[in-house]
Amino acid sequence: xxxxxxxxxxNFKEGKVSSLILSxxxxxxxxxxxxxxxxxxxxxxxxxxxxxxxxxxxxxxGLSFPVISLIAAFTNLFATGGAPLCAIARGKxxxxxxxxxxxxxxxxxxxxxxxxxxxxxxxxxxLLYLLGASDVTYAYASDYLSVYLLGTVFITMGTGMxxxxxxxxxxxxxxxxxxxxxxxxxxxxxxxIFRFHMEVAGAAAASVISQGIAFVxxxxxxxxxxxxIKIRFRDLKHPKWRLLPEIMTLGLAGFIMSAxxxxxxxxxxxxxxxxxxxxxxxxxxxxxxxxxxxxxPINGLTAGSQPVISFNFGAGDNMxxxxxxxxxxxxxxxxxxxxxxxxxxxxxxxxxxxxxxETIISTGKLPLMIYFSGFIFMALQFVGQSSFVxxxxxxxxxxxxxxxxxxxxxxxxxLLPHIGGLSVLGVFLAEPISNFLGGxxxxxxxxxxxxRKLTVCALPTGSGQGS
Length: 467
Fold this sequence. Notes:
Elements: H1 17-47, H2 52-63, H3 65-91, H4 95-122, H5 124-130, H6 135-148, H7 152-159, H8 162-166, H9 171-195, H10 199-222, H11 244-275, H12 278-294, H13 296-315, H14 318-345, H15 347-352, H16 358-371, H17 375-390, H18 394-415, H19 424-449
């Protein structure tokens, strides 16, 4: 039997920091790619349905995004707090606390999934009309969301507990689990949509089934013999609720990031519906899909960096913490600059991935280029935010989550369409402005207030820690 490496055992204290981060980030990126596939493949198939029906179906599914973002927000409330705290506990060699955090997070995600499914279903109709649905697009949005909500437990427990596999050094396992679910989704999508004529309901059903399979595989690992922090069924009877405020306080940043995504999407859809109609809501749906797709590597990198940074922070090795932050920043900035250039040069390529409607393609080029014109500054937001979370700095994480979206994007989205005849283009312009202001503020605060002060607590010579 092959000897397990230190990374597989979740030991991030030894070895080159950049290599450890990449060993986590590459499979995490692939796993997140698969996760996004669940929704993006739906949009690709629906957007290429013949005639105007495809455009209406795509717009209807787009109206469901704020609700899906809100489900993700409640998932992150526990996931993005529990996983870093668990990694920090492991860095301090407190395995009992690490297990207690994992169990409490798991039980919380179960309750969360059931609650979200029931509540959003009960308020589905008024919620969708509030988000900008018309009488034409409501039917599509309702059909999609009604089925999608059946799988909320799979999302909150499967996706929400994935980080606990990563921090144990098994990011490759998480990737395989997500790939398995996605492969099934790819098969079921065209079968349900076209063969069985289920249309948007079929797309949602394919997502629910594939996410359910990934959920089973994730839990099978956490309860299995390979888990470093193994959960037993009897542990579920005794979650440590005293840890929940700590988990939720740190996770509040991740919650707010997703919840503010919901708020921004809702405001954007409503404003676009008012100034441009269903056409521009459909264009924003495509732009959101492109953003999800091209953000995957940077999301994977920051997610892969967090357990490495958290573990070494818990172990007191601040020099390795700084190495991790520097590497994350350099790669993030380089990648976002490259993607900005590709979108400016080839906007039609990105649009035709999701639709064959010529009107949407020709009209959508300028909004797409405007929206991503400040994408490079988004890297600064990611790095600052991820560093705060990895180091357990809840207050800073929460503030900058609110600052970019609520304080900058939402007011600009409502205000800019009325300035200088911008109309709908003002909605798309709000994003790059917020990236510039919010990204710089987050990164500079992290650099000046946290990064530069880490040397004060650096380990003394001869401590035995890896560098």
